């Protein structure tokens, strides 16, 4: 060892508290005859219960002093442990495990005893350290009590306090005066001068009442025992900080006096973790439901001008937080547009939560949207987070918003205007940051005029309207989408299906597709299933879209071929008949749309496309 290495080593050992008063020559003798040992991570250095034969000084690394899963503290470079083995042959009271690769200096009892006998300087230095420690213990003992019983009790608890327990340990007497508190206890009480103060002053009312009841129970039973606190206790520090704890109360008493030790473990972090886990479980449950409900996402295929305009609107509104109202017939892909807006927005990293307002019973939809407290109604056995809370910092898609019960609409209006709501059965207002996208196949403005939908809610939703054209008005898009779906289902079912021919594309284009893209998807999937040798007879798959009047003409004139213009004229005449019969009423049970078997929005589009005008 070089002189510089020797100096560095002696400087290091001089900083070790146990040897701080030992002369350097004695320290060199100590090191020369000591053993240097290496322990890898998770290696046990000391096992609780075994008889010790050495003490250790940490040269490099970190160790955990613990009893099974309970940790008393972390020691690192310069710390020492196992000193009691030098003066007695009692079993080890704790275990010590390496937290990382650790290098220690092992000083055996035999070597230590030899130095104590042969080296007066060494013995003098060690004794100085022990005397200093003893004086510190005397000061603490004097503060605890003057009687022999108090000193004995203090000594019994002293080792746990000095070892720096992570839990808060508070000893108090029958009058609730604090006699002893470790650093963890002083930290949560935010007061370094807690001795002789009443412990009840540091608890909330409920916690103070609980502690008084437990102490009274201990006094009446006249038994020394440990009691787990049946409730979580809130500690209020001198500076107002509130922390939640679970703990135990121990009683030690004789015929004259009783003393109590309260051990508190902070559970704030655990409660936060449980809250996060609960939130993740709720989101996982919701996403599992979503996976079951969602159909295959083939993307938005848009070659037609009308659908390209929809994509342009998505790009315009995505980067804002504006509320969007999507209108379109059933099956046109309103949810796909909503997902496109969310994906292109600044909220794309947040959740997109979907709820179909028409698929949930009216008595449950408020709970689904806004959540409920335990016991709010029959069957509410636990707290539940609503979809709005799940969508915080993200987007919520309210499909079929026209089906939302009228009495619930003011609550939705409040969320849009103020970003807050009250869960069912709760008086606590929840704040949320949610972007709202709504969709409906109904004419909400007409609904509002009929008193079926709040007019103010309609205008709050209709900040940025997007109209999705029906599939029949998108030209060749129907064939492009059909080909994409054929490819998807072919791969899924391991079949080789040919793309559509021009004749087949004509069949797709001529059909009116009342169910739009959803109907197309179901039809294509069915066709692939029944396909034979890679071929599909689409004329047998696509429903007959000819109006009844055309079928009658074909019955009378089976050889007559109708032109495209004939078809348009027949459809126009058929619509005119329905309008005249219903006195030009379009929607409702006795409206023309109901007679024709099509949605009112579809009939309105056809009237406009065919140039039908109501006579004056």
Automatic annotation (TrEMBL):
It comes from the Bacteria. The keyword DNA-binding applies. InterPro entries: AAA+_ATPase, AAA_lid_NorR, cNMP-bd_CS, cNMP-bd_dom, cNMP-bd_dom_sf, Homeodomain-like_sf, HTH_Fis, P-loop_NTPase. Residues 300-529 form the Sigma-54 factor interaction domain. Keywords: ATP-binding, DNA-binding, Nucleotide-binding, Transcription, Transcription regulation. Residues 18-116 form the Cyclic nucleotide-binding domain. The keyword Glycoprotein does not apply. SUPFAM superfamilies: cAMP-binding domain-like (SSF51206), Homeodomain-like (SSF46689), P-loop containing nucleoside triphosphate hydrolases (SSF52540), PYP-like sensor domain (PAS domain) (SSF55785). PANTHER family: C4-DICARBOXYLATE TRANSPORT TRANSCRIPTIONAL REGULATORY PROTEIN DCTD, TRANSCRIPTIONAL REGULATORY PROTEIN. This is Sigma 54-interacting transcriptional regulator. The lineage of its organism: Bacteria, Pseudomonadati, Bacteroidota, Flavobacteriia, Flavobacteriales.
């Amino acid at each position: 060892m070089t002189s510089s290495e020797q100096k560095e080593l002696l400087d290091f050992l001089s900083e070790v508290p146990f040897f701080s008063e030992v002369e350097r020559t004695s320290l060199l003798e100590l090191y020369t005859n000591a053993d240097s040992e290496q322990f890898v991570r998770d290696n046990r250095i000391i096992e609780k219960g075994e008889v010790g034969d050495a003490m250790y000084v940490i040269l490099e690394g970190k160790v955990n002093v613990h009893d099974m899963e309970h940790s008393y503290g972390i020691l690192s470079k310069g710390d020492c442990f196992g000193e009691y083995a030098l003066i007695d042959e009692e079993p080890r009271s704790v275990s010590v495990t390496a937290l990382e690769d650790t290098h220690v200096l092992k000083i055996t009892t035999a070597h230590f005893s030899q130095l104590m006998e042969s080296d007066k300087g060494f013995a003098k230095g060690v004794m100085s350290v022990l005397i200093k420690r003893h004086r510190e213990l005397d000061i603490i003992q004097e503060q605890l009590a003057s009687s022999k019983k108090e000193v004995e009790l203090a000594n019994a608890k002293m080792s746990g306090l000095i070892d720096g327990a992570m839990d808060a340990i508070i000893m108090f007497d029958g009058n609730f005066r604090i006699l002893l508190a470790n650093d963890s206890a002083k930290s949560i009480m935010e007061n370094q001068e807690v001795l002789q103060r009443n412990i009840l002053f540091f608890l909330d009312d409920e916690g103070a009442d609980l502690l008084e009841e437990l102490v009274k129970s201990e006094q009446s039973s006249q038994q020394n025992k440990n009691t787990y606190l049946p409730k979580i206790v809130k500690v209020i520090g001198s500076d107002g900080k509130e922390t939640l704890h679970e703990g135990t109360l121990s009683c030690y008493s004789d015929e004259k006096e009783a003393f109590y030790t309260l051990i508190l473990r902070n559970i704030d972090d655990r409660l936060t973790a449980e809250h996060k886990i609960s939130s993740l479980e709720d989101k996982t449950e919701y996403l599992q439901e979503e996976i079951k409900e969602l159909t295959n996402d083939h993307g938005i295929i848009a070659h037609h001008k009308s659908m390209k305009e929809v994509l342009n609107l998505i790009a315009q509104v995505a980067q804002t937080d504006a509320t969007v109202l999507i209108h379109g017939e059933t099956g046109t892909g309103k949810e796909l547009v909503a997902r496109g807006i969310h994906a292109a927005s600044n909220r794309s990293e947040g959740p997109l939560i979907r709820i179909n307002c028409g698929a949930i019973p009216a008595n449950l939809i408020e709970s689904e949207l806004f959540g409920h407290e335990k016991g709010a109604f029959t069957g509410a056995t636990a707290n539940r987070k609503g979809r709005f809370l799940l969508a915080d910092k993200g987007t919520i898609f309210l499909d079929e918003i026209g089906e939302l019960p009228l009495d619930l609409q003011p609550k939705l209006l409040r969320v849009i205007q103020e970003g807050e709501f009250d869960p069912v059965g709760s008086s606590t207002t929840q704040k949320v940051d949610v972007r709202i996208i709504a969709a409906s196949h109904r004419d909400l403005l007409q609904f509002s005029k009929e008193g079926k939908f709040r007019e103010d809610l309609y205008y709050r939703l209709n900040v940025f309207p997007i109209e999705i054209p029906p599939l029949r008005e998108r030209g060749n898009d129907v064939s492009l989408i059909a080909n994409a779906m054929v490819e998807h289902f072919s791969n899924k079912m391991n079949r080789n299906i040919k793309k559509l021919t021009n004749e087949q594309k004509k069949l797709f284009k001529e059909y009116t597709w009342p169910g739009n893209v959803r109907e197309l998807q179901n039809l294509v999937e069915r066709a692939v299933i029944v396909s034979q040798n890679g071929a599909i007879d689409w004329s047998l798959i696509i429903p007959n879209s000819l109006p009844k009047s055309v079928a009658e003409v074909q019955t009378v004139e089976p050889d007559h071929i109708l032109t495209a213009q004939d078809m348009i004229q027949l459809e126009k005449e058929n619509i005119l008949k329905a309008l005249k019969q219903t006195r030009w009423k379009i929607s409702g049970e006795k409206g023309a749309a109901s007679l024709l078997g099509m949605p009112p929005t579809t009939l309105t589009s056809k009237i406009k496309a065919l140039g039908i005008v109501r006579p004056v």
